[in-house]
Predict the 3D structure of the following.
Amino acid sequence: HYFIQSNLRQSTRCHPPNDSTSHQKLKCKMEALDSNGIERVFLRLLNCDSDDGLQEILGRFLVPVLAAFQANSSLLPKLNELLGHVNKRLLHRPDVQLPFYSLVGFVRGEGVSSFSVNMGVLYVKKAYERLSLEERLSNVDLMFSCLDNTTEFQSEVLLSVLLPTLEKFTIPNYLDKQETLLPSLKSKVICRKIFNFSLKVILMPYVALTDKDSWKTQSTLSEAKIAGILKHIPTLTPDSLEGAKHTLVHLVSCEAFSHHPALVVAFLVIAQADTRCKVSDAAESRSKKMRNAVNWEDEGVVVLFYGLFLGQDKLPAKVGTVSGTG
């Protein structure tokens, strides 16, 4: 069910709702959440003195509150005050679960404004972090599916919170099993967003994590891009960056991405130049299996690599005809 009535901790871990029906319910609930409704939710939060009670309230009303952002702009001051209170309460209550599946349904819903989606993505991130490892692993594809309806910034937020889980995620060797486990990767839009994020991470220099002055002299990423990655992953260290790069090498080189072999090989070529052997060795091993899948004389492939040589940290919109006998 889209809105959760139980006050049990497991209530926010229900099965994913049906998108079409749940979004219709969201609209009905959103229309009823006027200024007085927001006041009542706020009073319930203020009178709540237990984690279970807070979890029940958020399970029932967090998504309608987020939906109200696009319903009436005059409610913004009250909504900001309410969510500010929620964020303060959640800061020191890591055991309080958020309605993960309802939030995902909201982010994936049609007709939701970019601003509302942006707020929803931030709470999806919080909700995903609070799930158990088993639940995070079982919902990797659901997180990927959110990328289809998000901006570049929002996609980076979601992929950043996924990185630690992906390190423990086992990707099958065969395409049919990969498509069964990760059906979202059939979408070229989602794959391209993963590519662009992965390219930024693989270009991230290790020295930038320990020496901020080095940002100005890096030829791979601009200062703004480095700051953006660190904003999404503030706890990043050289060792954890190595683990993230190694994880992305295995993800991007899996069979599910084989519809863009040139992009995969371009990513692996860059990864082979990494200063950590764990990353470079993995990339070299994977690239050997794909070299014959790319026509290296194709114009699109040449343009792709020349753009990367010039310092572009984003893949081109079109690569051209990339498959061939090599």
Q: What stands out?
A: The two ends are 52 Å apart (CA to CA). DSSP finds 16 helices and no strands in the chain.
